[in-house]
Amino acid sequence: MDFDNILRISRNVLGATERALLTPLSWIYGAGVWLRYQGFKTGLLKQEEFDVPVVSIGNVTVGGTGKTPHVEYIVSRLCRKYDIAVLSRGYKRRTKGFVLASDNLSPVDLGDEPYQIYRKFRSMVTVAVCEDRRKGIKNLLRINPDINLIIMDDAMQHRYVKPRVSVVMIDYNRPPYDDKLLPLGTLREPADRILKCDMVVVTKCPDDMKPVDLRMMKEHMDLFKYQQLYFSKVRYGAPEPVFPIGNPDLTSLNWLDEDDLILGIAGIANPRPFAKYLKQFGTRLKVIHYDDHHSYTRDDFRYIFKLFHELEGKRKYIVTTEKDAVRILNSPYFPPTRQNSIYFIPIQADFLNYEDRDFIYELQKKIEGLDDMY
Questions:
Q1: pTM of the entire predicted model
Q2: CATH number (domain holding residue 304)
């Protein structure tokens, strides 16, 4: 037996051992999720409903499913009709309790995703973070009584608030029907929790997705008739400087050639789509991957620029993700002399025209309670 076969068998044995160890833990985790669900179902745990409509955006898996770009999409389409507030828990922030976004705060105070939303829409929406969503909503309405729509980001597991509309995001590349509960898989709760939601969005769909793929996904989801299924993809924008200090406008990377170099920096859950996008320009590519929501240190930047200096290329650029850009922009450790060498790729959600149904139109009907009329 050759070495490759031995290695493959050892990996399979290790995988089986891991599954045997993790399966009981997954059962225990599932029992905890079920007990919590029963608490809300029986009324032992109380849900609170507000007069102002609340839209919950969430997922059933850990890792990025594209919630933030979809929140931004909803805000951009509805901000002229509603006085919107976006409420998040502010993952990995260093503050506690209710914090209202303002110009003198940073990702450290709000979390990178709420800060990104505030930075984009500061003149259009109110942004706040709070672990206790009920308390957060009450504070928002006290501060600004004109708010007439609240979007709760990453809120599917926060059931103490009863939303008027619940939207769940599913990553096309990680369908929940092929997954397991934590820690055996990536499911936060059983996949059938999706059947409790009003709208389901399959995110990160490939550009060349065929009608047969859409139909198969729809059959696998097996949703109720009253639920609406949508498909979206990521649309990448032209590179922008992280530090807007008169940097050359790249506009597009299409003019790069094979002698040029891009050093990609990605502190996100899944860097593969980002790397795939950069590869299409035909240049040489090196990607450094950090954990999701990574907080960059002085040593991180020393390593990045040491590697950048050692790599050879006719022209060299550092390109990062939009989420990383807000952390890097506010980092005290980024060397000022290097600010003209780093760019980011903005992204936004783009819905596929499946069954000629417009996501925003249907969402607005549900917000206004017009679905009950049909």
A1: 0.90
A2: 3.40.640.10
